[in-house]
Write a structure and sequence with these properties.
The complex is a heterodimer of chains A (674) and B (685). In chain A, 56% of the residues lie in helices and 10% in strands. Chain A has 674 residues and is an alpha/beta fold. Chain A starts with a helix and ends in a 5-residue tail after the last helix. Classes of the chains: A alpha/beta (674), B alpha+beta (685). At the A-B interface, helix 2 of A face strand 15, strand 16, strand 22, strand 26 and helix 16 of B. Chain B: The chain crosses the membrane at residues 22-41, 53-71, 588-609, 664-682.
């Protein structure tokens, strides 16, 4: 490196002694690329760790929402009516032979008493088809085939706003499971319906409504998400061909303003004693999309400040117990304390416990966004550009007791009433607050302007390194990088083949997932060999390893930047893996003076060659988050299946950006260095 | 516009009272133009002339004027008579202006009550008494005269008419169902298209001033259309426009009431208690006028409200309106209250309904669809107010007469790029069994009028028609079609379509694809970004006539209008299209960003253009001998320090050692350390 830098210095002096300042600065950066990259990467890591400290408190940005400005009017009368419904559902679940037919009928009957327009929506389980390039179009429009499959029945009721013009609607979704109607959480499942009914009965008499209210009592026998997404698909893209009776009865209520999904979950054994009812918010939709922060703020404000319900969001419990994070927390606390003692205005001191919790929550937030898989039925709404959130309410006391159930329904109902009222106040679309954010606590967020900094730091050295490597090559032809186009082309062609292979594998038959995995791996290997035979060896005479590395870094930085636009969190986590690979890549056969540094770099390289392989990288990621006991490399096929089932762009990132990067890394590692 | 407003505020009737004698005098003068300077009424403008003219008038002797006046009437009498005998309907053309007020109450199946106020003013052909009116609102007469209006209807509506429950094919619901917001249409008696457009623009402004509403937004050619037969068959002299977002409130009601001779001070209009009527579930206030040379001008002012009684099983007029009806408007020719009970509500059991209060007359219509109870208001006084009370003994869930097809409209697709409009027609066969037979030659005709703003770019060739779950060729279904494609920023797209469906059809759907356009920055409305509205489509059924014929013994303009051949029609919902909207609240960011980019771009451009290569090289050569600048020197110094490379060039070390020697660095670090410690010490103490 030393020699190269001197060379560059000389070259710089020779050609651009008196060039402009900006060029000279760039040249300076390039000539000190090692230093710059080390500093930038460290800064990126530190910035990532400091993110919980930089989180701001949330605030309600849209004044028109006016949360909590009206007193809730949901009364015991509504709740007792709802309780009757719950009792009826429970008795049907216990007695009747076919609860999946009787319960929707019962709900529809109750809705009709309130004067709502009702209908049943039938849907079947969608086939989990592989659409490698479908992640942009979230609604594959396949006609439902109800004939031979079992189907679920959602019950839908619509209240027309008395003086409204019917242009907009608020959707309430309460999932319940008819298959498991007599099961353990039957009372909780019925309570979700009861909760929805109490709010619905209040709204059916409300004179202040400006938007229509749609209540979807969705049948969650195929999962919560399936029923909601099937209903939304029929709402937005109805199928007019074939049996017209289902489209005939389908009723609509204008453009959706907001979706609120809520379900009651009774925790069997709590880890610790809860002194309050708890509502857990789920907000992440597909490909890292989030609902407007105002929607979460409204729910949080009403829950905490009006109803006294504790608000939770997803958090990785493993990280809270992790010693590393605790030590980091202590360090941060000390640093904050020291900074504050230097200048009392620097108030970024944070108790270490708070930091630990913030980190665990932030990690969960980043991970759920990076996975690109919605965390609940609200994800289906986001596919149609509707802001939605899932509230999971868990009561403090058992729901079996009627008194505690009534009190719980009253509290939860008032929370939903308040939220509906706020959204109803809104004259325009949600636009005021943030759409791009991570949460570090229910009332703390990191906005896009802040969380982009670590990523920027991580990606910034890549072009500089590429430029410096390009300068260091012995060939002086400005078009010399074209020689490396062939290995790059081979790698990327291969990655496209690997992307598409599962489509054909999944078509074969019902192979067990390990077989599929092996077929995929074998097919990929074969494809690589064929490509080499067709195009010839990647190590031709002109391909210097520095040139190859420069081109690899350039292609990776383009891939990362593209991914950061599609799903930022994926790019963020990906950068943590890919950037070290790009920086450290060094052929085994290269000769250097300092043997200590060389051996260290080589060790790092070998470790990264193993860990950077997408399969192990995914396993590592899951291990860090969920604990290593549960992770198995052979489950890779299943986790990939999961990703493409949700049309997640993370799959594309893994195979089209990460995998070629890893392969090029191996190419460099085994470069002959002639 | 302002003039009309002022006239309106003073009130036509008030004017007449105050200025009555003067106006009579003026009419004399205008009938016999003497060429004098006493013209103070110039046809359209009612200037402040009367008062100044009064001074001039004083010079004449009053007696001679009176004689003149009497003589003029004597001369004109034969003309009046000839007019009367030549009239088309001699009974309906009164010699004098007439006003009648009526109220129709109708219980609806979902325990709500429809209150339909109906006020009719008739003005005989204007030549009978010149430009002067006793009862008729002068502002309207002036409007009709100036803009040569043959027919006009203006409606202000809030809420939606529930076609499913409140009926769709009886005359009342056909007339009552109006789209939310403002709807205005007018037929003009003007030959050329350009003149009609110009007149329409003026008309919208006049009405805007008259009714305190933003009807003037209909002035722009992008907001109104000229359907040829989809709305009403015409020769291109019809203009139709709708403003779905217009809010309706008392400020629109007050000017409307001022057109009535008694306003809301007496008579049936005194029931209009603002809080009660605006609490209703549906509120539609209309003004309809017809004018021709034979019948003069007829205004129908109607107000329909659907109210929810507090006690669902028993209500009375007093409970509904919080006011009592104590007598008729003294100027009204007739003042009646009707209670219409649909047959389907009572047919099962006569005892289900109990009426308190004795009706003056009870009749059924010819087909026995409904029963009318008539109450004459003049019988009642302050001591004995008219208060109709209805008690339900049992609550029934029935629905009123439905239209043959129930129409609804919705948007398909999502995203900001494209979408589709779907109009779905559902057979309401259960309720109109008698109208159908399943023979092959039976067809139902449906006319659809759809006006779409230009920024929703509809591709009319994508029209797809599905009948009972199968796609049908447009040729087989469409009988007649008239498409006026939209022109960007000039005119909206209009689709008029006559379709023929087999009678046995259960459901049909029409799909039209569209692209969402981009608006210029100043075309965005200043209000909140909710999205953009597509006005209601009108679906009418020309084969179905809604009429109810009552015996002639009831003379009532309201029931008379029931006899007309009204086509059954229904309006669909208003649609909300979200368009791409820039975040206008962030111009600052945009400006900063653009300015930075521009500055960088122009800076480097100017730099490149200004520079001369040969001169540059010469300068570089001469500069090589001189010292380098301070900043580059510092940077190279620091970088060298960091990298630990010893400086080898002698000339650099000579010049830089005094500036950045190790001593200097040490001193700087020391001072900084002292400063930090001092700060820490002072703050902690």
């Amino acid at each position: 490196m030393e020699v190269a830098e001197v060379e560059a210095e000389v070259e710089k002096k020779a050609t651009a002694t008196r060039s402009r300042l900006i060029v000279r600065l760039a040249a300076l950066l390039v000539s000190h690329s090692t230093l710059v990259s080390v500093v930038c990467c460290l800064a990126g890591l530190i910035a990532l760790l400091v993110l919980p400290l930089l989180a701001k408190n949330t605030y309600i940005s849209e004044n028109a929402l006016l949360p909590g400005s009206a007193n809730p009017v949901l009364s015991y009368q509504h709740v007792t009516q709802a309780n009757n419904l719950i009792m009826d559902i429970m008795s049907i679940a216990d007695d009747k032979q076919a609860p999946d037919i009787e319960i929707p009928k019962l709900i529809a009957k109750y809705m009709e008493i309130l004067g709502a327009e009702t209908y049943h929506h039938k849907f079947s389980q969608p086939q989990n088809q592989f659409h490698p390039l479908y992640f942009f179009s979230s609604s594959p429009n396949s006609p439902p085939t109800l004939a031979n499959l079992s189907y679920g029945t959602s019950t839908v009721g619509i209240i027309r706003a008395p003086r409204g013009d019917g242009k907009e609607a608020i959707v309430l979704v309460s999932p319940y499971n008819t298959q498991n109607a007599g099961g353990i959480d039957a009372s909780a499942s019925a309570s979700s319906i009861g909760l929805a009914f109490s709010v619905f009965s209040l709204l059916s008499r409300a004179t202040w409504l400006a938007k229509d209210i749609i209540w979807v009592a969705s049948d969650s026998r195929f999962g919560d998400h399936t029923s909601v997404s099937a209903w939304l698909n029929d709402y937005h893209n109805p199928n007019f061909i074939g049996d017209a009776s289902s489209t005939r009865i389908f009723k609509r209520a204008g453009t959706m303003a907001c979706g609120i999904v809520f379900k009651v979950v009774e925790k069997e054994r709590r880890e610790k004693y809860e002194d309050r009812d708890v509502v857990t918010l789920y907000a992440e939709a597909s490909n890292g999309q989030m609902p407007n922060l105002d929607l979460l703020n409204v729910v949080h404000y009403l829950a905490v400040h009006r109803q006294g319900i504790r608000v939770r969001i997803g958090m990785f419990g493993g990280l809270v117990k992790s010693h590393l994070v605790r030590v980091l927390g202590e360090v941060m606390q000390q640093v904050g304390r020291f900074a504050r003692s230097l200048n009392p205005d620097w108030r970024f001191e944070m108790p270490s416990s708070e930091y630990v919790e913030g980190t665990a929550t932030l990690a969960s937030s980043i991970y759920s966004q990076a996975l690109g898989v919605p965390t609940g039925p609200h994800g289906a709404f986001r596919d149609y550009q509707v802001d939605a959130v899932t509230l999971e309410l868990s009561p403090r006391f058992s729901l079996k007791n009627e008194h505690t159930r009534l009190a719980f329904l009253l509290k939860g109902g008032r929370l939903i009433e308040g939220t509906v009222r706020s959204v109803n106040n809104l004259l325009e679309k949600f636009h005021q607050s943030f759409f791009l954010y991570f949460l570090t606590a229910p009332n703390k967020f990191v906005s896009v302007g802040v969380y982009m900094i670590p990523f920027a730091f991580l990606v910034a050295p890549l072009p500089i390194i590429a430029a410096s490597l390009f300068n260091l090559t012995s060939n002086r032809n400005p078009w010399r990088w074209l020689h490396t186009a062939k290995p790059l082309l081979i790698t990327h062609t291969w990655s496209v083949v690997v992307t598409l292979l599962p489509f054909y594998i999944s078509k074969i038959s019902d192979l067990p997932s390990t077989h599929c995995m092996l077929t995929w791996a074998g097919g990929s290997l074969m494809a690589l060999v064929i490509l080499y035979i067709v195009f010839g060896s990647p190590y031709s005479k002109h391909v210097e390893w520095r040139l190859l590395k420069a081109v690899m870094i350039a292609s990776v930085s383009i891939g990362l930047c593209l991914m950061s636009i599609i799903n930022f969190a994926t790019a963020q986590i990906g950068a943590l893996f890919v950037v070290p690979m790009c920086l450290f890549a060094l052929p085994i056969r290269v000769k250097t003076n300092n043997s200590l540094i060389r051996s260290m770099v080589m060790t790092c390289n070998l470790v990264m060659a193993v860990l950077g392989f997408p399969v192990t990288a995914v396993a590592l990621m899951q291990g860090v988050i969920k604990g290593f006991g549960t992770v198995s490399i052979l489950e890779f096929w299943d986790s990939m299946k999961f990703l493409w089932g949700w049309n997640s762009a993370t799959y594309l990132y893994l195979v089209l950006v990460h995998l070629p990067c890893w392969l090029l890394f191996l190419h460099i590692l085994f470069h002959p260095c002639r | 516009m302002g003039l009309f407003k002022s006239v309106n505020q003073l009130g036509a009737w008030g004017h007449f009272k105050i200025l009555g004698p003067i106006i009579i005098y003026a009419s004399v003068l205008s009938v016999f133009p003497l060429g004098s300077s006493l013209w103070f009424l110039d046809g359209e403008r009612f200037t402040s002339g009367p008062l100044t003219g009064g001074g001039v008038m004083a010079s004449h002797t009053f007696l001679s004027l009176l004689l003149f006046y009497l003589y003029s009437f004597h001369l004109l009498r034969p003309i009046y008579c000839s007019f009367g005998s030549n009239g088309f309907e001699t009974t309906s053309v009164p010699k004098e202006e007439e006003f009648s007020e009526e109220l129709l109450l109708k219980p609806l199946p979902d325990y709500k009550v429809l209150a339909h106020f109906h006020f009719t003013s008739i003005s005989p052909p204007s030549s009978s008494n010149g430009k002067h009116h006793h009862l008729f609102p002068k502002s309207i007469a002036q409007l009709v005269k100036k803009y040569k209006i043959r027919e006009l209807e203006l409606s202000f509506t809030q809420g939606r008419w529930n076609y499913d429950r409140w009926g769709a094919s009886d005359p009342l619901s056909t007339a009552n169902g109006k789209p939310p917001g403002v709807e205005l249409w007018a037929l003009f008696d003007i030959p050329t298209k350009e003149e009609i457009d110009a007149t329409w623009r003026n008309l919208t402004h006049s009405l805007s001033g008259l009714f305190c509403a933003s009807i003037n937004f209909l002035e722009s050619s992008t907001s109104y259309s000229a359907p040829l037969w989809g709305f009403l068959p015409n020769n291109g002299d019809l203009r139709y426009g709708a403003l779905p977002r217009e809010a309706v409130c008392t400020e629109n009601l007050t000017p409307w009431l001022k057109l009535l001779p008694c306003r809301d001070k007496a008579g049936i209009a005194s029931l209009l208690d603002r809080p009660s009527i605006y609490r209703g579930h549906y509120h539609s206030q209309r003004l309809k006028l017809r004018s021709d040379g034979l019948n003069g001008i007829v205004i129908e002012q109607t107000l329909s409200v659907v109210l929810q009684p507090i006690d669902r099983t028993s209500w009375s007029m007093h409970q509904l309106f919080k006011k009592s009806l104590t007598g008729k408007c003294a100027l009204a020719k007739s003042s009646k209250v009707f209670l219409e009970i649909e047959r389907s509500l009572v047919s099962q059991n006569e005892n289900i309904l109990e009426l308190v209060g004795e009706a003056d007359m009870v009749t059924n219509d010819q087909r026995d669809h409904s029963t009318i109870y008539q109450y004459n208001v003049e019988r009642y006084s302050e001591h004995e107010a008219l208060d109709i009370r209805v008690n339900w003994k049992k609550l029934l869930q029935v629905s009123f007469l439905q239209a043959p097809l129930h129409a609804s409209r919705f948007l398909m697709g999502s995203g900001n790029e494209r979408g589709s409009i779907a109009i779905s027609l559902q057979s309401a066969r259960n309720s109109t069994k008698g109208l159908y037979d399943n023979s092959k030659n039976c067809f139902t005709r449906v006319v659809i009028l759809q006006v779409v703003p230009w920024y929703v770019k509809v591709y009319y060739h994508t029209l797809r028609i599905y009948v009972d779950g199968a796609i049908r060729d447009a040729k087989d279904v469409v009988e007649k079609i008239n498409v006026t494609p939209s022109e960007d920023k000039v005119s909206p797209g209009t689709l008029e379509m006559m379709l023929q469906f087999p009678c046995g059809m259960m459901s049909a759907a029409l799909i039209l694809d569209f692209d969402k356009g981009f608006l210029h920055i100043d075309e965005y409305p200043p209000d909140a970004n909710q999205g953009f509205d597509i006005p209601s489509a009108l679906v009418s059924f020309p084969d179905f006539i809604s009429r109810r014929i009552y015996p002639d013994s009831i003379s009532s303009p309201l029931l008379q209008s029931y006899k007309g051949r009204n086509i059954v029609k229904s309006y669909t919902e208003v649609l909300l299209v979200p368009l791409t909207t820039p975040d206008f609240s962030m111009p600052y960011n945009v400006i900063t960003f653009t300015c930075t980019v521009l500055a960088l771009y122009f800076g480097s451009m100017v730099n490149v253009l200004r520079r001369r290569v040969s001169e540059e090289e010469r300068l570089a050569k001469s500069k090589d001998k001189r010292k380098p600048g301070l900043i580059p020197l510092l940077i190279s110094k620091i970088s060298n320090k960091v990298r630990g490379i010893k400086e080898d060039s002698a000339n650099q070390s000579q010049s830089s050692e005094p500036i950045l020697g190790p001593k200097v660095v040490f001193k700087v670090v020391l001072i900084a350390l002292i400063a930090v410690l001092g700060h820490y010490f002072f703050n902690s103490s």
